[in-house]
Specification:
single chain, 118 residues, alpha+beta, four-stranded antiparallel beta sheet, 2 helices, 4 strands, 35% strand, rod-shaped, transmembrane helix, transmembrane
């Protein structure tokens, strides 16, 4: 089973009022999803965000955003540059690949020398 991890790509402190406690201490964070499997490490293009008030420790969902918060969100969303989508093989993939190639080469060698008849 592949493990998923959200890596932070941009974090910003906002001076907008919190809709819950009306303090000016908000933290906006953008994440990019990475998946780690046995054979491949993938960087997906999937982005997510989280807006938290540092004073009352509540997560502020988009339904309760004010116009000012939404404006700041749109600005910081443009500045959050995610890593390119990619997929990298792991060491396990390379070692398994080399073992399979060695097995195939061994069978071909035995067939050429006459030790195996097909």
């Amino acid at each position: 089973m592949a493990k998923e991890k959200l890596n932070i790509i941009k974090e910003a402190n906002l001076n907008n009022n919190c809709p819950e406690c009306f303090n000016q201490d908000l933290n906006l964070t953008f994440f990019q999803k990475h998946t780690y499997g046995r054979f491949f490490h993938k960087i997906t293009g999937e982005l997510s965000h989280k807006l938290v008030c540092n004073t009352c420790k509540t997560t502020i969902y988009p339904i309760s955003w004010t116009e000012d918060i939404e404006r700041m969100y749109n600005y910081y969303q443009k500045t959050a540059v995610p890593a390119k989508k990619s997929s990298k093989p792991t060491l396990l993939f390379y070692s398994l690949f080399l073992v399979i190639i060695a097995l195939i080469a061994g069978v071909i060698y035995l067939y050429i020398t006459g030790a195996i008849q097909l």
